[in-house]
Amino acid sequence: MTGRRPDAAGRAALALYRDAPWRERAHVHVRWWSAPFRRLEPLLPATGAVLEIGCGHGLFSAYAAVAGPGRRVVGVDIDADKIAAGAGAAARVPHLDLTVAPDGAVPAGPWDAVVVVDVLYLLPAEAQRRLLTAAAAQVAPGGRLVVKEMGASPAWKVRWNRWQETLSVRVLRITEGSTTFTFVPPDVMAGWLREEGLAVTATRLDAGRVHPHHVLVGERAAGWGQPTSATATT
Ligand SMILES: C[S@@+](CC[C@H](N)C(=O)[O-])C[C@H]1O[C@@H](n2cnc3c(N)ncnc32)[C@H](O)[C@@H]1O
């Protein structure tokens, strides 16, 4: 259970929703137990500007803000109802903002980190790639893009995840998005990030879990965007 149980910052983040309606409170608690947030938070820089794209009710953004008081965290989502549900939580943390992203636009950076947690599978593959390209463009030199999605193996975890997502999106209607899911294999997505000039590491996060959790971290070189010595002398 280590790594799943909320730590002090996790408990504090969940407590931010104490005045929310029971449905939202239940949702953020279920979300905490189903997602490996404790493994993701240390992948963010301890200080600086952090953008979460597709933050939903804002639980991971809230956790990142509480765990890292030196961070300024902005969470955006296309779903105005979810942002409204997180508004009470965000109001309690001065360095946390949750806001609606009209048409899914990526807010201009530079961001020291951009994080995307379980969002891309709701979009067709080309739209996933466009969103990652737009996100990568806003990562500061020396910054990183953290992409948490589901992996492509083992088959039983992939089947379990598809069944659960079908329930959430089509039956319970908890999540906005297309009613088909596109799980792009992590190695394909890693290739997209490399084409955006990021140095990528891939890590499975599914040990002891029924979902095939997986994370890619794309790092932007500190000197990115500066003229090389060859360019500078011409
Ligand atoms: C499964 S939820 C995950 C929410 C949150 N990241 C978490 O881990 O709890 C996916 C979220 O992505 C949002 N979303 C889908 N497409 C988006 C886009 N293009 N831009 C921003 N948010 C998007 C949905 O509205 C939904 O809230």
UniProtKB/TrEMBL annotation:
Q: Which residues form a coiled coil?
A: none
Xref: InterPro entries:
Methyltransf_Superfamily, SAM-dependent_MTases_sf
Q: Which domain of life is it from?
A: Bacteria
Protein's name according to its UniProt entry:
Methyltransferase type 12
